[in-house]
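Let us practice reading a record.
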Amino acid sequence: MTALAFYCSRGGDEDYCENIATNRATTITTFLCITLLLSACGLSDEEKAALAEKQRVECLDKICPGDTEPTRDYKSEVVFKVNGQWFVMPKEYGSPNFGALGFTWPSRTPLAADRTPPEKKTSGDGYDYSIEIFLRSNSIPSAPHGYALIQLAEKKGWVAARKTLRSGLDQIQMKHVIGPQEQYIDHVTYYVATELTGLDGLPPVATCNHDNVNNSGGTGFIWRPGIWVGTRMNQKHCADWPEVYQETMRVLSLLLEVK
């Protein structure tokens, strides 16, 4: 039994496990449907080209039938594909192609490890203690985001309040204004890891919605050219944002590109 199957069999996050099965079935079904359409009579060359392009784009972030997967240790590693690039990573952290990868907080237990995280003893809902990491090459948000958005907000006078919660962590509240993404920017609270430097050279930022204890938070940033990383966690973990960010980056460092 794989670590991921063991995780699901031990009462792992039902939505996460169901998503794995659904994504696998959807990938195969989509590929077969497009293949049949391409071979069907009556389609113009333009229509066939459009379908082929649709399949190509969808398979940038998916393992599709016909792909030649890189070699790896099947017991401990998993391969995945994003932006057409192949990566290998420890299986116990999950897979971006079949749901998410990640870890639990604060124990830092790999999300799909074959052991029960200690947080489950006090909370049966995986979303309460899971830090989920998603990778994709599509729908990348336009700039500015992260601390660049905060810099713009400071310049525009959109910041309502900023305070230091502790050494290395600031909290920012915005005014009720529409930001550059054509959305109100005060529906979340911004957390800045002031003593850390992100991949963009600026302090890493997380946003959290504290309207309800079950609401979420997270961050998003360009990890590599053409690859966007998004994270999701319970809003309460924003209090640990600098430490959560550091563990997120450590886990991402385990993802090794296969040339």
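A brief commentary: The chain has six helices and twelve strands.
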